[in-house]
Amino acid sequence: MREARVDLPFLVCLAVLVALLTAVAAAGPALLDRLAGRALASRLAQEQRAEPGIRFGAQFEPAPGQGSDAWASDLAEDLLPVTDLIVSAAPEALNGGLVHDSTRVALPTLATATAAGKVGLGLLYASDAPGRASYAEGRPPDPDGERVEIALSTRTRDALRLRLGQRLPLRPGALRNVEATAVVVGFFTADGGNSERAEREEKAERGEGAEGAEGAEGAEGERADASGSDPGSDLASATGRAPGSGMGDASPGDRLWREQPALARPSRHPPRSASGLDWEARALVAPRTVTALQAQAGATLTVTWGMRLDLDTGTAARFADDRGQHELQRLLTAYPDDARSVFCGDIADFGGMYCEIGPHPASTLRDGTHLPDVVTDFGRQWRQGRVVISFALASLLVVGLLAAAVTALLAVRRSLDAHRLQRARGASATGLALARAAQTAPAVLLGLLAGIAAARSLPGPSPAYRQGLPVAVLVWLLLPALTWHALRERAVRAGPEPAPYAAGRRVVAEAAVLVLAAAGVFALRSRGTAGEAGPDPLLAAVPALLGLATVAVLVRVYPLPVRVLARWSARRRGVVALVALSRAAKEAPARALALLVLVVTLAGAVFGGLVAGTLADGRRAAAAWQVGADASYLGAGRDSDIAERLGQVRGVEDTVGVRQLRVDPTSASSGNRYGVASLVGVDGARLRAAAPGSAAARALDDAGLTGPRTGEDIRVLATGARTGDLFTFASHGRELRLRVVGVLPEDVRHDPALGPVRGTTPARDRMLLTDNRDLAAIEASDFEGTALLLYGPHLDVGALRSLVPRASGDTALGELRIRSEEQADAAADGMIDVLRGAHTTCTALAVLLALLALVLELLLSAPARGRTTAYLRTLGLGGRATSGLYLLQLLPMVLAAVTGGTALGLTLPALLGPALDLREFTGGPAAPTPHPDLLLTAALGAGLGVLVLAAVGVETWIGRRRGLGAVLRLGRNGD
User: Fold this and answer.
1) Count of CB atoms within 10 A of residue 800's CB?
2) At what angle do helices 429-457 and 465-487 cross, to 10 degrees?
3) Residue 349 and residue 366: Cα distance in Å, rounded?
């Protein structure tokens, strides 16, 4: 009974360790699947913030005979059966994850006039338009009304000086043959969280007050219907969707305003614009208005259905591995064909109106999606993410097993005297080991059941019992194995004396560890990680092997400076430093287990902080490379009007043009090919003023290319050429000549200002840089990439987006990138959150286990330190000197652990090599620069120091309360 009470703390500790390690090992594969599902679901949601993942479109003509009663056709009712067909064609394997998001029909702009000037007004019917709750004044357009009713945003109201009930004459614009009068029936709020300060600034710029709506014509003072009925609700019931219902949006209509920013706020045309307009705006209309104006104009319109892939975590987990990703891509590729077939049969799209939408002749469905590419990119990144998470899980298991080993060693040490007495009375080492196994079996079984129960309680697939059971068995066998090793015949006969050939065996063991670690790293770099689900055995072994190799080196290295310090302290008065440092150097091999625990723990934590810091900084750098400035407009050469209007948006202080041309020049002297190169032109002087730190601007300025042009040659800075070389290339039958005036500096190739054009074209080894003024002879249509860089610390993002929406089906419109948006997307990436959360959790558990192991190790070595202190106390050593002795004896090991663990954690990305490519997460022109988390590293080191100080304090207190006779006993080993 007394023996059971003595072993109770050990049994409890053993059960807890078995439960934790079994749960981690058994739940590991399922945990990876769930994390992959979370990451995939988050990535799909993020990629569909700008627009639905799958879009269907069909053109439709006015219904035959509709001219007699233009308001008779209810477009919402006509579209509803088609919507149901598209939804019903969704693959069942997606578990209802492919949902209808919106149905929209946009009319080309019409001309009208308000007190603010001439306006190009576009009309839009949207099934996801918000209801009356989002209206500051009035109501939504009546879906059963027989007049043109429009609703606009409050910002459009203020900018165009409109008021409720105002009549606006609609005249032909892009939509021809239309003569109608629109009635303003409501103003909705579409700020999307934008500040009221922006509205006040706009009003201040116009010099108007809040009441400036005078001069409006034909106001009839109409208000919302007294009956209180909500036309928006009727519209929702007709389309089968709640108004403004959005998954994860802050308020109704947020997704609509994001995808159609012109609805939220109008955009101003520059003075004397070629269009003759002062403003361009959008308004919401009812579905009958669409067909009535269509019949009047005789126009063909396009209806767009948006389908959003919204997978729950469990469903996404099924498609997260390599096989599931291929299956998901197959489903997404086959779905548009299935939807087209159920809509109109297997009719090829030859441009004819062979199908029907209600009474309207219609074309077959056309589709567009970028989701298969999203899944491909996710697969590449998740393979790297699996490395990070698997490494964290493997480090946790290694630390847990080491903690179990220290626990077993402490149990062996506490019962060693009793077991040796039993051996002297005839008991065998094997019998005593089996007895210890039987004593610990109930605790191990209890821990195993608790670990499996914890793993089963997690949602998702069932735990991997075949991986949890070996871990529990390994922990269970540690104590019997160590007991047998301590009581075997050789150990009993040899006593405390070192065994013969021990030094040679130690050298062989250390060499074997180093060889195995090098082989593991080489194998991992050569073959990468396993693609199947579940932990990678090689990846799980590498942390332990690298930790062992680091400890083997540390145990050999760190006693050397400690001995030097001991010799130096011998020349000084006092014995505390001499004794403490001498024992620390002598006992270094005995501290190998504690060193291994600390090194593996610190290496895993530093590695996780390094990955997180590198990804955060790398994503910011990649966003700067993709945008090039505070904002950039790609395709500026295709639409100079939009480029001019973007440059006049409030907050834009400087604009810089960047262009790129593919050339294949030949030497003017020898005729040899220079090679395919990117000829990049920059407004050098403007870039130097807008971004003084730009490497490209500095290189152009230093070479004198921003000054006046001399001659007809195109002056360039070139890679792989010498100053003075001449090259020629043909352009539209003309021969243009390039003159190299200097070597292109290497840092120019990574200048973010060139990213918008270089990042959208194939990468080339050779590059030529010049000023845009030297490229005047080249046609604008010849450039493969053009961009307008926009600089300004306080850009009006809403105004920019009202000109170029983030989701635009018009490829001729170009693409607008805004750095704040790109950085926000990078920060909100769910995969990065999954990696950070998983590694933080594993690191926290590993640190707790390491603290447990370190405390047990201190208890294990406490008797030896106590005897040394007792000897010195008999010689008059005081209490303060005792504390100093404890501290100096532990300090070398702690410093070695911090140094080795930190060094290993920082070098792990380089050691893993191709198995961990962080560029897959960040993009950009080059691999991200490593950025360790210095705060985390310092916190771990400080925490370890605090633990050592606490241990020193506790041991000093215990030593003062303990008599010398409890430590020094005649006949005891070493006494």
Assistant:
1) 23
2) 160
3) 8
Nearest in space to 212 (alpha carbons), one of 171, 163, 248: 163
Amino acid at 274: A
Pick from 416, 418, 398: nearest CA to 408: 416
- Packing angle of the helix pair 592-627, 934-961 (nearest 10 deg): 160
The pTM (predicted TM-score) of the whole model is 0.79
Q: What whole-number distance in Å separates Cα of residue 207 and Cα of residue 209?
A: 7
Q: Which of 476-480, 621-625, 851-855, 875-879 has the largest mean confidence?
A: 476-480
Whole-number Å distance between alpha carbons of 489 and 157: 96
Nearest 5 degrees, angle CA 247-CA 253-CA 257? Answer: 110
Residue 119 above 60 pLDDT?
Answer: yes
Beta-carbon contacts of 79 under 8 Å, excluding residues fewer than 6 positions away, are 103, 127, 239, 287, 303, 357, 358
Q: How far is CA 685 from CA 632, 786, 789, in A?
A: 18, 18, 13
Work out whether strand 677-682 and strand 766-771 pair parallel, antiparallel, or are unpaired.
Answer: parallel
Question: What's the pLDDT at 790?
Answer: 94
Q: Hey, how many other C-beta atoms are within 10 angstroms of the C-beta on 858?
A: 21
CA distances from 480 to 475, 484, 702, 882 (A): 10, 6, 75, 36
Task: Enumerate long-range contacts of 780-783, CB under 8 Å, 24 or more apart.
Answer: 780/637, 781/637, 782/661, 782/731, 782/732, 783/637, 783/659, 783/660, 783/661
CA distances from 418 to 368, 411, 497, 862 (A): 78, 12, 20, 19
CA distance 344 to 598: 67
Q: What is the pLDDT of residues 125-154, one digit of tens each?
A: 999 998 898 999 999 999 988 899 999 999
Cα separation of the two ends of the chain: 31
Give pLDDT, residue 211: 39
Helix (H, G, I), strand (E, B) or coil at 943: helix
Q: What span, in angstroms and rounded, lies between the C-alpha atoms of 32 and 386?
A: 7
At 363, give phi and psi (nearest 5°).
-85, 170
How far are the Cα atoms of 18, 408, 846 from residue 449, in angstroms, in the given order? 9, 21, 22
Percent pLDDT > 90 in the chain is 27
Q: For residue 470, with 0-12 CB atoms within 10 Å meaning exposed, 13-18 middle and 19 or more buried, which class applies? A: exposed
Does residue 462 contact residue 404 with C-beta atoms inside 8 Å?
no
Q: List strands edge to edge, sheet with 666-667.
A: 666-667, 726-731, 734-743, 714-718, 766-771, 677-682, 654-663, 785-791, 631-634, 815-818
Residue type, 630: D
The DSSP string of 318-339 is HTSSHHHHHHHHHHHHHHHHHH
Helices 537-557/879-912 angle, 10° precision? 140
DSSP 774: G
pLDDT, residue 163, reads 93
Burial of 115 (0-12, 13-18, 19+ CB in 10 A): middle
Q: Tell me the C-alpha distance between 383 and 389, whole Å.
A: 10
Question: Tokens for 393?
Answer: 């899980």
Rg (CA), the chain: 37
DSSP string of 706-739, one letter each residue: TS---SSSEEEEESS--TT-EEEEEETTEEEEEE
Count of helices and strands (H, E) across the chain: 30, 23
Q: 468 — alpha (psi -120 to 50), left (phi > 0) or beta?
A: alpha
Whether 608 and 837 have beta carbons less than 8 Å apart is answered as no
pLDDT of 230 over the 50 cut? no
Q: Write the DSSP string, 641-677.
A: HHHHHHHTSTT--EEEEEEEEEE--EETTT--B--SE
Retrieve residue 881's tokens. Answer: 């000197």
Task: Name residues whose C-beta falls within 8 Å of residue 818's C-beta, 6 or more positions apart in sequence.
Answer: 627, 630, 631, 795, 797, 800, 801
DSSP structural state of residue 171:
B
